[in-house]
TrEMBL record:
Coiled coil: none annotated. InterPro entries: RNA_pol_sigma-70-like (IPR039425), RNA_pol_sigma-70_dom (IPR014284), RNA_pol_sigma70_r2 (IPR007627), RNA_pol_sigma70_r4_t2 (IPR013249), RNA_pol_sigma_r2 (IPR013325), RNA_pol_sigma_r3/r4-like (IPR013324), WH-like_DNA-bd_sf (IPR036388). Residues 16-79 form the RNA polymerase sigma-70 region domain. Keywords: DNA-binding, Sigma factor, Transcription, Transcription regulation. Pfam families: Sigma70_r2, Sigma70_r4_2. Belongs to the sigma-70 factor family. ECF subfamily. It comes from Tenacibaculum geojense. This is Sigma-70 family RNA polymerase sigma factor. CDD domains: Sigma70_r4.
Amino acid sequence: MSEKLKVNTLNPDNWIDNYADYLFNYAIARVNNYDIAKDLVQETFFAGLKSAKNFEGKSTERTWLISILKRKIIDYYRKINSKKGQAEVRMSFYDDGDNEGNWIEERVPQSWDSTTEKDIENDELKLQIDSCINKLPEKYALVFRMKTIQGFETEDICKELDITASNLWVIIHRARTQLRDCLEKNWFNK
């Protein structure tokens, strides 16, 4: 039987042993909360069991479970963000003329000087950065980690979180501004 014709089957009895750690690591990187990540993985397994009859075998079990988990993560963020609404605030963009949609340069957080980059090697600063990221609103922290730390592409983040590229960059800008304020208060001005 050729590889293209091979049909994958589900084996739910082995899901926890084979995929729980992988799914948990995937979830924790996106929600940064142990309990929520654990719940999302459990919901993924439950949803997989409920929809097993729909599995066509065109992908591996792991790929299929990851696609379910992605939808669970998206649903999680939609639920927590539905209270806040989906309005985009464009306070840091030009909103008319030839520059529409471009950054207003004086509002963009400026880069730190070169000595700061050397200080990042310091473990205490790394801990402070993590602490400041954890103080960000949950969606800001997620988007910041995905884009800046994990290196996800803008398109992938937008698709996964169901946001526009413009909204992503507003979130990144706000996250950077809040991180800078937090670090200035808690690290540079000690």
